[in-house]
């Protein structure tokens, strides 16, 4: 009944019955927790922005003293890149600046090494996020990893131009929240190139909170703190280092 009600409202009325999901146009779904940032209705205070940047700056300085390179990045919210599919009644914005746009100059002022994924993705003609998931697809993950590794000055394989296979087998997190028994598989990209790293110990999936990898044909080590966007990036980052955590 839950799925049937969601289908009735979503397909016929164009509205979402799931608390955390926004029903967009052309089959697009968005994570509702990003709405306040999208509309600019609950922005961080200037003090909060400074606290974030200054804390990162202190972490960076401490690691520098230990001979460790530091890099910070933020995965852009889906509606900040592809907002054209947001419902018309959510498109009224208090300000065009979101928290990320306001944080960037503060990071620069504090001297934090920052990789700007928003500008990189915004410059791409191809859509690199899933329609019915809140995250990027494998092409987007490869682009993000390439950007981070270049910023770190790490030798790596760029997946730009690498051959891949397309399969309509990906089920999105937002789709699952909205239509748990009637999800619509969408396109995912699978690169032909095989990774050279291996996981240490038993790993159920890239969603595991702690994962250690080794790669006998690469050099260097990586410690990566990640959110859910990091799950798709993990294979590309792990493949560039002898050990990664």
Automatic annotation (TrEMBL):
**Any idea what this protein is called?**
Alginate o-acetyltransferase AlgJ
Mention any Pfam family matching this sequence: ALGX
**MF terms in GO:** transferase activity
The answer to whether keyword Signal applies is yes
Principal subcellular localization: periplasm
Origin organism of this chain? gut metagenome
List, alphabetically, the GO terms of the cellular component aspect: periplasmic space
Residue span(s) of domain AlgX/AlgJ SGNH hydrolase-like? 21-178
